[in-house]
Amino acid sequence: MAGTPAFDDDRPPSAAVAGDCVHCGFCLTTCPTYALWGEEADSPRGRIYLIQAGLDGEPMSASMVRHVDRCLGCMACVTACPSGVRYDRLIEDTRAQVERRFDRTPRQRALRAAIFALFPYPRRLRLLRGPLRAYQASGLRRLAARTGLMERLGPTLATLESLAPRLRTVPRPPRLVPAVGARRAVVGVLTGCVQSAFFPEVNSATIRILAAEGCEVVVPPAQGCCGALSVHNGRRAEAQRFARRIVDTFARAGVDHVVVNAAGCGSAMKEYADLLRDDPAYAAPAAAFAARVRDLSQLLVELGPVATRYPLPVTVAYHDACHLAHAQGIRAQPRELLAGIPELTVREIADPEICCGSAGVWNVLHPEPAAELGERKARNVLATGARLLVTANPGCLMQVAAAVRRLGGEVATAHTAQVLDASLRGLDPAALGAQPPRSSR
Ligand code: SF4
Ligand code: SF4
């Protein structure tokens, strides 16, 4: 053994957690990178071996970093593991070490710098809306698709272009929305970065549902990013800065619950106690904050329905976002909400535990394998015959919609909140873009 050990003393991955792995391999079949490449080093067990080698004093090699980077952080392995190995903690701590200690290539550094100068900043993302709408309206998008121009400019740019959703204009949410009928709770809503810039209609639907179900809704302005992208990519100090601001913002709002409609954000916010555990000023407020965080579906099921559901005759395929199902254990609640809508049918998607390849910014950092995973998911979605794909994460919506387009398929996409909102407002499925089957058109 030679060279500087992989990990320093600033929160190295836990040897005890790594030691919990009994190398049984039950996690392998749920791991998307193992499914893609079939390499032990690209499986959860293989990555734990690599982390253990680092803990044993091996240096941080380029090969180790490559296999760590290739992990989507989807947490399917955490769900699958019978020994309860907290792989999520291991990979998060390992990534923070990699980001501080590994000398990436100038190209990798530049790409990461660009990503993290843009995505965690809702105002900067909103500035992109105008040019993006002009590009989409001009027909240039169709031209670029026909000529393969984007692919020639590079897979990263092609991925970003293909992911961009059709942008809708909705008014900014009001800061306070009163409950309809008797007030049952006061809730704050996280508006998010990508969600507020590219899917403002999801936030509008979320607010309407909460109010209809008896919640007074507080929407603090200028919330900033929750830090999910940063913490999931090893940028811990940046994530901690974002988290402190969110904790302060919602403490001032004086709410019973903080409602989140983006799976990745919710999973990160529920872990604030761990993220800020070494900060004497924030450890206790962060723990109190985390206990108040609820996914939208989780809170609605806890409260129970009071608003009238009108029929919404449509067949939907429900996709479990990894950071909802694996990281938060929330699978039943969204299905319960959908099942409560008259005339709506839910179909399950094959291989539900395998990630769609979005995984925060993984699809931007690894465009080719992400496209492969996206198309695998899209084929399974199309095989259900559903007219509408429903999920609870903006990244999954963009990723699967782009893959469906590439395959020439036809299925609309919507957030769970939009589906429930459509039912509460008595809208037609066409309002969600869901077309009737070709045979009945
Ligand atoms: S992480 Fe869990 S499931 Fe995977 S090999 Fe280790 S003990 Fe087995
Ligand atoms: S988090 Fe996902 S990609 Fe990473 S090792 Fe686990 S299952 Fe594989």
Automatic annotation (TrEMBL):
Catalytic activity: glycolate + A = glyoxylate + AH2; (R)-lactate + A = pyruvate + AH2
Keyword terms, alphabetized: 4Fe-4S, Electron transport, Iron, Iron-sulfur, Metal-binding, Repeat, Transport
4Fe-4S ferredoxin-type domain segment(s): 11-41, 62-93
Keyword Repeat: yes
Enzyme Commission number(s): 1.1.99.14
InterPro entries with a match to the protein in the record: 4Fe4S_Fe-S-bd (IPR017896), 4Fe4S_Fe_S_CS (IPR017900), Cys_rich_dom (IPR004017), Glc_ox_4Fe-4S (IPR012257), Helical_ferredxn (IPR009051)
GO MF term list: 4 iron, 4 sulfur cluster binding; glycolate dehydrogenase activity; metal ion binding
Cofactor note: Binds 2 [4Fe-4S] clusters.
CC cofactor: [4Fe-4S] cluster
Keyword match Aminoacyl-tRNA synthetase: no
PANTHER family per UniProt: GLYCOLATE OXIDASE IRON-SULFUR SUBUNIT
Function: Component of a complex that catalyzes the oxidation of glycolate to glyoxylate.
Protein name, UniProt field: Glycolate oxidase iron-sulfur subunit
Species this chain originates from: Couchioplanes caeruleus subsp. caeruleus
